[in-house]
Design goal:
2 copies of one chain form a homodimer. Chain A is an alpha/beta fold. Chain A has one domain: P-loop containing nucleotide triphosphate hydrolases (Rossmann fold), CATH 3.40.50. Helix content of chain A is 40%, strand content 17%. Chain A contains 8 helices and 7 strands, in the order H-E-H-E-H-E-H-E-E-H-H-E-H-E-H. In chain A, strands 3-2-4-1-5-6-7 form a 7-stranded parallel β-sheet, with helices on both faces. In chain A, helix 7 links the parallel strand 6 and strand 7 (191-193). In chain A, helix 1 (2-25) packs parallel to helix 4. The first copy, chain A, is globular and about 45 Å long. Chains A and B meet through helix 1 and helix 5 of A and helix 1 and helix 5 of B.
Amino acid sequence: MRIEVVENVLKANDAVAAANRRLLERYGLLAVNLMSSPGSGKTTLLERTIPMLGPAEPCSVMVGDLQTTRDAERVGPYTVQATQINTGTGCHLSATQVAEALGRMELERLAYLFIENVGNMVCPAEFDLGEHARAVLLSVPEGDDKVAKYPTLFQKADVILLTKVDLLGVLDFHIDRVREDLARVNTRAPLLRVSSRTGEGLGDWLDWLRRTRAAAAGAGA
Amino acid sequence: MRIEVVENVLKANDAVAAANRRLLERYGLLAVNLMSSPGSGKTTLLERTIPMLGPAEPCSVMVGDLQTTRDAERVGPYTVQATQINTGTGCHLSATQVAEALGRMELERLAYLFIENVGNMVCPAEFDLGEHARAVLLSVPEGDDKVAKYPTLFQKADVILLTKVDLLGVLDFHIDRVREDLARVNTRAPLLRVSSRTGEGLGDWLDWLRRTRAAAAGAGA
């Protein structure tokens, strides 16, 4: 009974996500859904990424949080538009919330649309938003066992960012364990090592964004 | 329609939680539900806490994770019993899962039962498990904005542990911001600073556990 309702919710979400995807494909932009635990560095990564892309590759950001507009305020200065979606008690963004926010966005001006999901390693994995690509962040302080313990999120990733790698010297973290666990759940997505603090690896992330945007534009044409 | 179903699920959960609570009150133990993001140090805290309590205050642990039995294996050596509950894609423990695990536990031998919830700052907040007390962990690397962004979890806490405080010197984290946000959502729960690595604050945490157990036993008598 409950399962059926949940399935209907997921089906309804997928239909709206498909409509979002069709809308986004009309423009030459890349929409990336960023997912991770709270505090693994999604907003900080965007604060660094967007100025590096610069005015030639304009960005907007949609941010999901239970409450507050702090993240939208943080990325606001760097973006064409920053939209905060407050989910109340909702543990993930839905395609409908994204559809409503898309209706208020000047998509024709954008090279990238970053959708920063609610900080949560479980629920966002099940909800397609209509994005072109999924970026999953794992921060060094969270520990090297998270891929094995939360495989559903990592399974669906198109790119995985190991963030806060500047803390590798301070904390007991074995990247090999992450690689071994990823070998079981996702062999497709590259694993990028980044530090928003030192700038390490941000070039690789920008390369990935540009390559993926070019591929999406090719597929949509 | 969906809301009604969700309400029914919550009502059914609360009824089972009440039965769990009645069962637990027959014994002189304290059941603590530990909740936090993935990787904020729940398991490591238990690895330190249980040996410090020692054989005079025996503990068992119930651990919720999507997959793997790693956490139960980690705390196993220190406990009377360690039970892993794999939730599959479930984003929180439910009272029914706890009830089933309680049926296999030797409750009469225990001073403490630690229930380590699925790493998630959103969903576990809504599901009473029948515990006596709720401990919410926030780790320094997650950032000082999490109370404001995820208030529902902190609202219901009986104690809040700021973990990994040995990283305060390395990271930009302002405890005053946490205190200010807590003043708005929860003025009841003490905020304890702990580091499982250096041992800082673990004495305060043990004091809190012993005091709370004594109070629970007094209330149950």
